[in-house]
Design a protein that fits this description.
Layout lengths: L13 H6 L2 H15 L5 H23 L10 H4 L3 H17 L19 H4 L24 H18 L22 H13 L1 H6 L5 H7 L4 H22 L5 H11 L6 H5 L2 E3 L3 E4 L1 H23 L5 H19 L7 H17 L12 H19 L19 E6 L1 H10 L7 H8 L2 H17 L1 H14 L6 E4 H8 L12 H11 L6 E6 L8 E8 L3 E9 H5 L14 E5 L1 H6 L15
Helix pairs in contact: 2-12, 2-20, 3-5, 5-7, 5-10, 7-8, 11-14, 11-16, 11-17, 12-14, 14-15, 15-16, 19-20, 20-21
Length: 597
């Protein structure tokens, strides 16, 4: 690993490399992942360290600018005041909705420029994705208008306005500058809600399930605010733990440890896999680590929220959880939710350290539960049972390998046509890399992104389903849906519902592809009560072609490179009339083809 040069497989003859089959290339790339992860240069991690400094420094400056609170030299006297946490919530929401947080930088395939978000969302004509266009009036369409840009600017300005406000609402029994007047966040609440109904991407990017929801807690008395913030944190931990109750998470642990910049010993990395280089399924080591992580997110927050009293045991528990989040942060996970983990660490010391004596049993206003429980309980329950209906973010199904995903398959001319037709602020990642380095490096780094997907359990299904659609056609260019979302809508963070058929239809409106030019395979997350995942195959011009399911057990038996060709085992296959003709050359394993309406 160099300062600027990535660590890539030793491929001398690029012509011969590109003539290899997808399976042959993935064998080389996934084995290279075990030892080197993405192979990012050291400068990448310096970029993320700088971002953390900006995040922490921005929060400190906005809080220190509060009249009467004291300067930066007086942090010890004011860090535990109520207005500090309130402003941290607003600042983090602003930081994320600008695009500086999750989904930014090289580890999200953003190289030039390193962020999207604001660079897209202030430009009329870019793509927007309304969550319920047929149910919510005035939200139809996929083109960003001047109105959308104006509301987005209101979100930014109203957040800055709240950050610049003095304290005023007194806290009973406590000294200090007081709390924010809750009316100061009303414009932010309303503007982000309106914008979210017009474009779900921006609401998700603002991490609305956490920070937007927390703004409502500002309307309660300070003691109840502390209870409310603690309940939000509890839901996030328990939601994350529940999302790990599957067979996918050991794959995530192994992939993260291979990519961890501080994990330099190849022998340790190879312990994560059963038999390197032949069997790259997770060994018992990441399985144990996965169970430890799940138990941690259930047990320690349970103690802190319901039984913590600010005493020695409480401090031992919160230090353990702080180390837990520091470990996650140190692995620099893909998607880079780094500031999110910093927020968790500060919340531990603020909520359960400085205010550990305020327990949930001291809640005075039961209306707080009426505000929080639909988002903290109902949505996660629905999202686990019907992941197709709820984004994995408000469902709090975090980073456990069980996400909605997609693969996009292009004819080369169609890929060029899309790049020309869309209003964006960047080129596709391979083109960005070619400008930064050279075409060889761009091709291999794009391949490493494919190997990252393949190393996950659902990536084994992707390999088979892509071959089912594209076969061994050497002209088909396969691109992960995450990269298409980052290019086309300005933000990507593991949310496959942002690059499904809705995005395909929006792109088709602008490009008018012919049948066969662009096809996508979408794979939904696994419902908690089932052991299979539903897939769909869409053609940009023809629409839905095929639906079916793949089983988790069969994914787990496979290596991260395709071995079945078009015979990957699928179940409950149904084809539309268009699909019967378009996919005539593919195999059906269990079910005869059948037209669907």
């Amino acid at each position: 690993m160099g300062l600027l040069k990535p660590t890539l497989p030793d491929v001398q003859d690029m012509t011969e490399w590109q003539q290899r089959s997808r399976a042959e290339r993935l064998q080389v790339l996934t084995r290279h992942w075990v030892d080197h992860g993405f192979g990012s240069p050291q400068s990448v991690y310096s970029f993320y360290l700088l971002k953390l400094v900006i995040y922490a420094g921005g929060a400190l400056l906005f809080v220190a600018a509060t009249p009467g609170i004291g300067g930066l030299g007086d942090i010890a006297s004011w860090w535990d005041e109520g207005i500090v946490y309130q402003k941290l919530v607003v600042w983090t929401l602003l930081y994320e909705v600008i695009g500086l947080g999750c989904g930014s930088g090289p580890l999200s395939s953003r190289f030039m420029p390193p962020i999207g978000s604001i660079l897209y969302w202030v430009r009329p004509g870019t793509i927007r994705l309304p969550p319920w266009p047929n149910r919510v009036p005035l939200t139809k369409g996929s083109r960003r208008t001047v109105f959308d840009v104006a509301v987005y600017l209101v979100v930014l300005l109203s957040a800055v306005y709240a950050l610049l406000q003095p304290g005023g609402q007194e806290v009973a029994g406590a000294e200090g500058v007081g709390l924010l007047d809750p009316l100061t966040v009303v414009p932010l609440i309303v503007a982000l809600a309106v914008l979210g109904l017009r474009d779900k991407t921006i609401f998700l990017a603002a991490r609305g399930e956490q920070y937007w929801l927390s703004l409502f807690i500002f309307f309660f008395a300070y003691g109840d605010q502390l209870v409310g913030f603690k309940l939000v944190m509890l839901a996030l931990w328990w939601g994350a733990a529940t999302s790990k109750l599957n067979h996918h998470f050991p794959y995530v642990v192994a992939v993260m440890m291979s990519n961890a910049p501080f994990m330099r010993f190849r022998a340790v990395k190879r312990l994560m896999y059963r038999d390197f280089p032949n069997d790259l399924r997770p060994s018992w080591v990441p399985s144990v680590l996965a169970h430890v992580g799940t138990a941690t997110e259930y047990g320690v927050p349970l103690f802190l929220v319901f039984f913590g009293d600010g005493g020695p045991l409480t401090w031992a528990a919160l230090i353990y959880m702080a180390l837990f989040h520091l470990h996650i942060l140190s692995t620099i996970p893909m998607g880079v939710p780094l500031e999110w983990n910093v927020f968790f660490i500060f919340s531990l010391f603020y909520l359960f350290g400085a205010h550990g004596d305020q327990t949930v049993w001291q809640l005075e206003n039961p209306w707080l539960l009426a505000v929080l429980l639909p988002s903290l309980v109902v949505l996660p329950l629905l999202g686990n049972v019907r992941p197709d209906l709820v984004s994995f973010l408000p469902a709090m199904r975090y980073y456990a390998g069980n996400w909605a995903t997609s693969s996009w398959m292009f004819r080369p001319a169609a890929l060029a046509r899309m790049s020309e037709a869309l209003t964006t602020s960047c080129t596709l990642p391979t083109e960005q890399l070619a400008r930064l380095y050279d075409p060889r490096t761009a091709v291999l780094m794009a391949g490493k992104a494919q190997s990252w997907r393949a190393m996950h359990s659902h990536g084994r299904a992707h390999n088979g389903l892509v071959d089912r659609v594209a076969g061994d056609d050497p002209d088909v260019v396969v691109i992960d849906g995450e990269l298409i979302a980052g290019f086309a809508i300005g933000w990507n963070f593991g949310e496959g519902h942002l690059h499904n058929a809705q995005l395909l239809n929006a792109i088709q409106e602008r490009c008018g592809f012919a049948p066969g030019d662009v096809r996508i395979m979408t794979l939904e997350g696994q419902p908690i009560q089932r052991q299979d995942q539903r897939y769909e195959i869409h053609d940009a011009a023809l629409g839905l072609l095929e639906t079916g399911t793949v089983t988790v057990a069969q994914m787990r038996e496979r290596q991260p490179w395709p071995t079945d060709g078009r015979d990957y085992p699928v179940h409950d296959v149904r084809r539309t009339e268009a699909g019967i003709a378009a996919l005539a050359g593919t195999a059906d394993v269990e079910s005869p083809t059948a037209p669907t309406s």
